[in-house]
Each structure stands twice: as structure tokens, then as C-alpha cells.
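Lecture 7 notes: from sequence to structure.
We start with the chain below.
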Amino acid sequence: MKHQIIRGIAVLLAIGVMVCAAVSLPCGADAGDNVEIITAEGKEFRRAGRFAFTVANEQATIVGYSDDLKSTFGKWPFSKGVVRNPDANGTKNALVIPGELGGFPVTRIGENAFRACDSFASVVIPGSVVHIDNWAFMHCNGLLEATLSEGVAMIGYQAFAQCRNLSSVTIPGSAISTGAAAFADCTALISAGIGDGVTAIGDSSFSGCTSLINLTIPPSVTRIGMSAFSRCAGLTSLSIPDGMASINEDAFYHCDGLTSLTIPGSVKAIYSGAFNSCVGLTSVTLAPGVEQLGNYVFSRCAALTDAVVPPSVTFIGDNAFKNCPVILSVEAGSYAAQYAQQNGLPVR
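Predicted C-alpha cells for the same chain:
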């Protein structure tokens, strides 16, 4: 029994070492020079400075981070690499993710790895990192700025979601997509730099970013996902690049700050509710080439008075202009002219 107790204490001490680190370490030196190998919950982890990581195929994945001696094991499942300390009140500074740990390149930031860590105000993710997994930085409310370096390819679900004070993010062109709900409900986000090379804005990527005003969608983007910018009420201007193929359901739902909109002819389909409830929108111009408008696409745009619909449009869904004081500019004999007549919409 005595030996079992001693063995149990040793395991707890190992875990304590894993999740705690000296607060005096500046974030730039978090990687440390010494690597410890620790077994906890039947799994092998390595620790360098404040970073906990695993190694597979000669590549390192960061699975956890400890920012305060008061951090305690068990508030989040350690198997997911989460170290959360809601009581941390240390100095906030810059966190630089190392390009290697223990001699192995850091290629992945694991699920929940930095979730709810509030001790850093900015983070730079190096180009060695290919994957940022789900929830990796979710709820980091001390985070003000995030820079993802060229090389990052995958951004996971809600990777930076609900970082309430995040005001600026840079996404490199190497990223395939901005990630589903990756920055959702970052209510202080003002500027999102999306690099040329990104081909898709993921579903709900920036949903609920109510302060977003600076947005440039590069010409490489061909798809805007469902609810991608829904409830971005601060967005006052929008430039859709020629080359975009589709705008999905509710993509810009309730973007109340938009006043005018031009859709290039490369966009073949604008799906249901894409601009529903954009209450500040007054004019819409669809370029020749646009073919389909989904149900409720401009419904409840209470200020919309003018919409140019070209003869290339061959389908308009139900209630596309419901509750809009709109006058459609259409070509006589076109599908849009017939739709207007059948639905009692005035034309010019």
C-alpha cells in the first residue's frame, strides 16, 4: 500500500510539472532549452518551457500551454491538451510559437492547445505549422492580434472563435480556407487580412464579428460559405472579386451597414437568404452572367429601392424581394421581367 501511495504521488507530481510553469518566463522564451518526457493518463508527453507537445513521424504537435503556477490539472481534459487558468492575472505580452521543439519541427497546434489562455496579447504562428486544429485558441480573451505565417494550410473549426478582444488577424494565402466558424463571434475584430491564394471563406468563418469594417476578399476566393459574414453589422462596403463562383446561404445575413452592392458576372448562383435583412442596403447591381437568385435572397432589405437584374438570370426563388420597396431594372421579355409581373413587383 505504501508503495502504491508513493507511486500515486509521483504521478501527480509529474502531472503538476506538466501543467505548471514559472510565471517569470517571458513568452518569447517559452520553448526553453530542456525537454522533459512525462507520462500522464497513460500517454507520453514532452515539455519544453511552457509548451507541452507530442511527437509523431518526427514532427511535433503542441497540445498544451501553461501560463501560471496556479494552473490546475483537470479543469479541461488533459488528454486534449488543455490548460486553463481563469484566475491568471499576469502581464500580457507576445507569444511566439516556436518553429521547433526538442529538435522536431512544429507542424501542428492540437485541439484546445491554447484554449482560454489569457496571458498573451498577440500570437505569431510560424510557417512550419501546417494545421491549426479545432478550438486551438478559442476563448483567448486577452488576445488582440493574431498573425498566421505563410505555410499554414488548415484552420480548424472555431480555432479562434469567441476571442472577444481580437481586433486584427492576418490569414496567409497558403491557407486553403479560412476555416468553419474559425473567427466566429470575435466581436472586437476590425480588420481581417485574407491572403491571395485562399480559395474559400468557410461556413460561419466571421459570423457575428459585429465590428468588422476592413475586409478585402482576394481574387483567389471562388466560394463564400454559408453564414460566412452573417451579422457583421459594421461592414459598410463589400467588393466581390470577379472570379467568385457562388455566394452561399445567409452569407451576408443582417450585414446592416452595407448600402450598395455589385455582384460580378462570374457569380452564377446567389443562394437563399444571402443578403437577407441587410436593412441599410439601398441598391443592388447584378452583372450579366449571374444566373440564379435563391429564396429570400434580398428579403427584408427594408431600404432596398433599386435592383438591376440582367437577362442572364434564369431563376429567382420564392420571396426573393419580400418586404423590399424595390423597383427592378429588367430587360423586357426576360425571365426577371416575367418574375416581376407574376409577383407584383414594379419595374423600370
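Points to note: The chain has a mean pLDDT of 86. The longest strand covers residues 59-65.
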